[in-house]
Design goal:
Elements (H helix, E strand, L loop, with lengths): L12 E5 L7 H13 L3 E4 L14 H13 L3 E6 L15 H6 L3 E4 L4 H11 L3 E3 L12 H11 L6 E3 L8 E4 L2 E10 H7 L12 E7 L3 H13 L2 H4 L2 E8 L9 H8 L7 E5 L10 E3 L2 E5 L4 E4 L9
Parallel strand pairs: 1-2, 1-3, 3-4, 4-5, 8-9, 9-10, 10-11
Antiparallel strand pairs: 5-12, 6-14, 7-11, 8-13, 13-14
């Protein structure tokens, strides 16, 4: 059973770090102010406002910022400013045994996907495919905040994962399976293949989503996962949306789902609104969920945080 971090409570300290690309300081400041207006304390990492080429700082510096947050007993939640590019570069410089012994809530999506899955794989820590700092703005739908706090600030279980009203789940292949859920951004997961941080899909439910990629490139990513055996290893599939994905050769994202996933005959749920979508369902990476496509239901079966300190 995976380790659950202590729950987020009013007045707790949130650590803000830049794990990938730089972010406009004005956006960072807005996110920090929003967190403070919600009643949280905020600790800003040394390199949160930095820029070093295409990343906010060197791999070692960004990793050090993250480890500093794990070492600080006051910090209960670690938020990356954004994803972007370069999160994989910090992975060799993290102390996974220390993280295992000092679990904290880690949230994000996009390029942060590889960190979330690596912390689950190497530290046995439940992480959260949910909000980044840039999502803490006045324009963020309340649905997204409700989803985020449901998994990070309550121990309610079992609990259904639900799309917002008007955006239905679509079950393509009927079935009922239970297991840990892994995954996130497709391109980031493909980048992990052939590395010590390669995603493990064996007996897992695999969640995938993508954004701003032409469908011929999405085809390449999915084919790479297939050839690596990751689709055969999975128990079932939850497909998020492909936001702003250009249709190439008259082949849509749905066409690719039909091509790669339907023939496998495993439970397949599509149209989940998460990650890069406007509405963001929160997915607890490493938590046990039940994918019931007979009833069109995705359920978190266990608490995703603990009530302890």
């Amino acid at each position: 059973m995976a380790i659950k971090p202590p729950m987020l409570q009013p007045g707790d300290t949130i650590g803000v770090v830049a794990l990938g690309s730089p972010l406009d300081p004005n956006v960072i400041n807005e996110g920090v102010q929003t967190l403070r207006s919600m009643g949280f304390r905020v600790l800003i990492g040394r390199y949160a406002y930095g820029q070093s080429g295409i990343t906010a700082a060197t791999d070692e510096q960004r990793a050090a910022d993250l480890m500093d947050m794990f070492r600080n007993d006051d910090v209960k939640l670690i938020l990356s400013t954004r994803g972007g590019t370069g999160v994989a570069g910090i992975l060799p410089f993290l102390d996974y045994n220390f993280i295992r012994q000092h679990p904290k809530i880690v949230s994000g999506y996009s390029d942060v996907t590889i960190l979330l899955n690596t912390l689950y794989a190497l530290s046995n820590l439940v992480t959260f495919n949910s909000l980044l700092l840039l999502d803490f703005t006045s324009g963020t739908p309340s649905f997204n905040f409700n989803q985020f706090f449901a998994v990070t600030s309550t121990t309610t279980a079992p609990r259904p994962i639900e799309n917002p009203p008007g955006i239905p789940f679509v079950s393509r292949i009927k079935g009922n399976v239970t297991g840990p859920i892994v995954g996130g951004n497709l391109a980031s997961l493909v980048d992990s293949l052939g590395t010590p941080y390669e995603i493990d899909t064996r007996n897992k439910i695999l969640y995938l989503e993508e954004t701003h990629e032409p469908t011929n490139k999405v085809y390449r990513y999915l084919n790479h996962l297939k050839l690596a055996g990751k689709l055969d290893d999975s128990l079932g599939f939850v497909m998020g949306q492909c936001t702003e994905c250009t249709v190439i050769y008259n082949t849509t994202y749905d066409d690719l789902i039909n091509h790669f996933f339907v023939p496998l005959g495993k439970p397949l749920l599509t149209n989940l609104a998460g990650s890069h979508s406007y509405f963001k369902v929160a997915i607890p990476i490493g938590a046990v969920v039940t994918l019931n496509t007979e009833a069109n239901i995705l359920t978190i079966e266990e608490p995703t945080v603990t009530a302890g300190p």
